[in-house]
Amino acid sequence: MTKRFFKFATSLVFIFCALCIMIMVFFPLPWNAKKNRVEQQARIIIPQELRYRIEDMENPAELMARQESLTSKVALAEGEVIVSVLNGSFEGSPMESQFVAYRNLLEIESPIYLTYIDYDVATRGYKRLWSAPTAATRPGTISLYTQDLLGDRSVCVLLFGMNGLGEHTLTIFLKNPFNDNNEHFRKLAELRIEGTITVREVERTQAYQMGSSRGLTFDIAAYGRDFDSSNILDQVEIIYAYNTGNGLYEQRSITRIPGAQVEQRRVRELLGNPRAFEEFVTGLWYYTTTQGTIDTQQYIYFDPASREIIFYGDETQQVFIWQNSIATRYGLYISSQNISVSTLRRSIDIELESLESVRLRVIEDVRLRIGVSTPWDGSYRKAGPLANQIRSPSRGKTSYIDARYDGSMGKINFMPNGTYELNSGGILKHGNYAFFLIDNQEFLELRSTEIRQDGVSAPVRETYLVDPDQQNTLSLLRIRIGSRGIEKLHEGAILLTQVE
């Protein structure tokens, strides 16, 4: 009996141990739960204003490219938000370095800071070596560049922007070759003015280009109001030159520039009022040559109502989305984005010259030197009778008509407010339209919004060449206007007959 009980107990213990082992294998106990537990910490959420519009949404590829261009090689501190990034080998090192412009959202009226990030051989990683504040405070106005200002092939970094007072600012730092007091860069200039700031480049010798001699130092020109004059449009030109004695840019000369004698009350109504100035620039503006003549082959069309800006030059039309407007002392600062390539951005500084002319300075969002002018820089005169030669419809006095047509694409109703309604096979489509002329050829543009397969709304633009010889009939041939000019898409013509 005892022997049987012993065998039974042994079997029972063996079965129990086997069950415990199985339980431990398939259902392990959290022996190190305390060690592996991640304590939840309070997360600081900083509210930011989000103003996304359907037409401003970027496609995934362009969005990734934009995010990549604003990526820091080192994590910034809490509250620090990247504004602009400039990558490159600034000291001839094979490893890439970074200049990062950022702002601190935890600070009230935070200035734009600039930090330098470089590769550390000892730690085999990137480190923030230096940071300093600049005179700019508005993130949407920042342009970051490097340039050899002094002619000795030293690294000068320039940060151009605006502050809360509507002043243009320029802060310049120079790479410190001796790294005194652990300061990798020292400040050469910090300028603020109500007008514009530009770098005056001069041609340097071939010996400089070949690296065998120094080059001339570039001066800086700043334009602001002449407070000694009663005319608001009178300006002063201040030239800043580099002083080799103290290593700073200092004022060298000041010159008064008389402005147009116009009605001062009207000028005061325009300046400092973004909405009034937008209404003032609405329409077509032709480029004015240095001889004072109008160039009808280069013009800019401002359309605040549709939030669009159209650049036309060298037989190429570029359409930009009008994003933001900031009032300046002499006009308006506009941020825009290309409607086709959303990573291409353009800033436009408009200054009032007279009640019939403006001066433009266009800044491309590409890694160019700050002093290089674009083909769009210069004076523009508002279109008068010449406007009908390029951008005016042949059907009436405006770009819009009030008519109904029926044809192969369906029944389309053009309304006088610039909208249309298309009924194609029972499917209704709504959008905007416009008739316009380029080189005496009439075109029709239809703009609408469609839902893509991923559920995201996307803008759609269709442009057609209109046959002007048809009576009560629209003969439309679909085309594309791009960098190569006007391209036909080799599709059949669409005939639309006007109906009552």
- Helix proportion: 10-25%
Could you tell me the number of beta strands? 29
**What share of residues are in beta strands?**
over 45%
Strand order of the largest sheet: 13-14-15-16-17-18-19-20
Kindly report the oligomeric state of this protein: single chain
Main sheet specs = 8 strands, antiparallel, barrel
Provide a count of the helices.
Answer: 7
Give the count of structural domains.
3
Cα-atom radius of gyration: 32 Å
Give the averaged pLDDT, no decimals.
Answer: 78
Label the structural class: mainly beta
Our measurement of the CA-to-CA distance between the termini, rounded to an integer number of angstroms, reads 114 Å
Give the CA-based shape: flat
Ranges where pLDDT stays below 50 over 5 or more residues in a row are: 30-59, 61-65, 367-372, 385-394
Sum up the structure in keywords.
500 residues, mainly beta, Lipocalin, eight-stranded antiparallel beta barrel, eight-stranded antiparallel barrel, flat
Architecture blueprint of SSEs:
Layout: H1 2-26, H2 33-36, H3 60-69, E1 80-88, E2 97-104, E3 113-120, E4 125-133, E5 143-147, E6 156-162, E7 168-175, E8 185-193, E9 197-200, H4 206-210, E10 219-225, E11 235-243, E12 248-257, H5 264-270, H6 274-281, E13 283-288, E14 294-303, E15 308-313, E16 316-327, E17 331-338, E18 345-354, E19 357-364, E20 378-382, H7 387-390, E21 403-407, E22 410-414, E23 419-424, E24 427-438, E25 441-451, E26 457-466, E27 473-482, E28 485-488, E29 494-499
Antiparallel strand pairs: 1-2, 2-3, 3-4, 5-6, 6-7, 7-8, 9-10, 10-11, 11-12, 13-14, 13-20, 14-15, 15-16, 16-17, 17-18, 18-19, 19-20, 21-22, 21-29, 22-23, 23-24, 24-25, 25-26, 26-27, 27-28, 27-29
